[in-house]
Amino acid sequence: MQISFRAVRVLPKRAKAHIWIVTSETVAAGLAQISPRDLDNADFSGKTGQLYTWPSEGRTAVLVGVGSRAEVDSNKMRRAGASIGRKLGKQSWIGVDLPDVELDGAASRQALVEGIALGSYKFLTYKSEGEPTKLNRVDVAGGSGAANQHPLDLGKAVAEAQMLARDLVNEPGGTLTAPEFADRAAAIGHDRGLSVKVWDETAIADGGLGGILGVNRGSTLPPRLLELTYDPPEPPNGTLALVGKGIVFDAGGLSIKTGQGMMTMKCDMGGGAAVIGAMSAMTQIAPAAQIRAFVPMTDNMLGGDATRPGDVLKIRNGKTIEVLNTDAEGRLILADALSLASESEPDAIIDLATLTGACMVALGPKIAGLMGNNDEWIEAVKQASDVSGERVWHLPLPADYSKQFESSVADMKNIGTPHGGALTAGLILQEFVAEGIPWVHLDIAGPAWSDSDDAEITKGGTGFGVRLLIELAKNFGHLDGDNAPSPAE
Ligand code: BES
Ligand code: MN
Ligand code: ZN
């Protein structure tokens, strides 16, 4: 990202715009810069993300609302920042002040920077005349020095990680093929000082990753499985495994989708993109734990030798699955990845996957379904979600529903009955998490993609989950002053 964020004492005279972030109380009490009547006429009351501009002393003056003082939090600051990033992209140098002292904490400043950067995001790779944001310098007033600069640097690192995930999701399935996805992610991994391991088609076959092989069978392009590892400088206080679904395009296989249903299916690697995005920031975030990422990658096509409904696949951990619907492919590749992640015996696992339309039916486009096997770990993920503003909702994993996927020829089949599909998918994944490892599954089928701009969310790939994963990694091993979550039952 070209924008640099600097902590300064006061708004710089030479900036092209001066921006004040204000609460609704401050607006009601009146501001020195502007008459109450003007604000009233413009219907500006300081609601979160509301923006009011006027010319002043040769530059643009701007008020951005952050809502009521008592309710200001990181999420409101991020929204306010996004208004700035979206509406002031024509300015090259802007200064932002947070005159209400309560808003001036490190978390607020970090979220502000995240919002400004994310709101200015555009995917222009294929636009002949697209104009990127002109913003290249943002000075944040309220104090200079390392302590004030640090949250700005963190915010920039987080936003860059999320924008990387967006870029990956927005890249079409025909160009971001599985080998290309792995190459790009490996290059990023090397660049950021991570350990990188790429399983190619031979390694995948030799390793018995039968779920990935089965889904890949209808493709003319080979599959990959990417591993990235962050090792902290000191001996790690634990190991966290991140797993992300990496279907670069989901046509449904022989159980083919409709044309409509396929239109956004380049987003089916949104979980993998979020995992890779988060990993790209690990060296800057510097968590105390080891963080290991596993991303299985393939498209789900319907070539002449594609997996047929009725075929049986053998997963890495030895369990067999009868494939009755080739469009329920995410669980097949994740089964291998979760088995592999389990073998490394991490203290906890989280997976992110655009797994089921059923989860979108249940929770809509903005909220991820959360399922898991360990209350403490579920709580940790919920807390990270509160801070990151990426919403999750806890759904059950009802043990008796497992009957739905009993198979007469294999250990299980890959689908259940028509209703409660998000839960059956979660229950199937659970079969591949080794006994005793705390695990959470996030079904991000809804929030990985957006049909419209909204606050820090931009149309297309959203990069949902990147901030949550970074927050989770940052705190891992420090939960409630305790170590990693205790093993599941
Ligand atoms: N990738 C889809 C799920 C999806 C749907 C993600 C819409 C984002 C938006 C997944 O592979 C899928 O096709 N799931 C099937 C499962 C069914 C066949 C049991 C679904 O949800 O219809
Ligand atoms: Mn599918
Ligand atoms: Zn899919």
Which shape, going by the Cα principal axes? Answer: elongated
> What separation lies between the terminal Cα atoms?
45 Å
Q: What would you call the structural class? A: alpha/beta
Low-confidence stretches: none
The hetero molecules present are: ligand BES, manganese (II) ion, zinc ion
Q: Give the strand tally.
A: 20
Number of helices: 16
Taken as a percent bin, the fraction of beta residues is 15-25%
List keywords for this structure.
489 residues, alpha/beta, nine-stranded mixed beta sheet, six-stranded mixed beta sheet, 16 helices, 20% strand, elongated, binds ligand BES, binds manganese (II) ion, binds zinc ion
Outline the structure in words:
- The protein is an alpha/beta fold and 489 residues long.
- The protein contains 16 helices and 20 strands.
- The strands form 4 sheets. Strands 7, 8, 9, 10, 11, 14, 15, 16 and 18 form a 9-stranded mixed beta sheet that branches. A 6-stranded mixed beta sheet has the order 1-6-5-2-4-3. A 3-stranded mixed beta sheet has the order 12-13-17.
- Strand 15 (368-372), helix 14 and strand 16 (392-394) form a beta-alpha-beta unit.
- Helix 3 (74-87) runs parallel beside helix 4 (106-119) and helix 4 (106-119) packs parallel to helix 5 (146-170).
- The model has no long low-confidence stretch (mean pLDDT 96).
- Manganese (II) ion binds at residues 250, 252, 300, 327, 329.
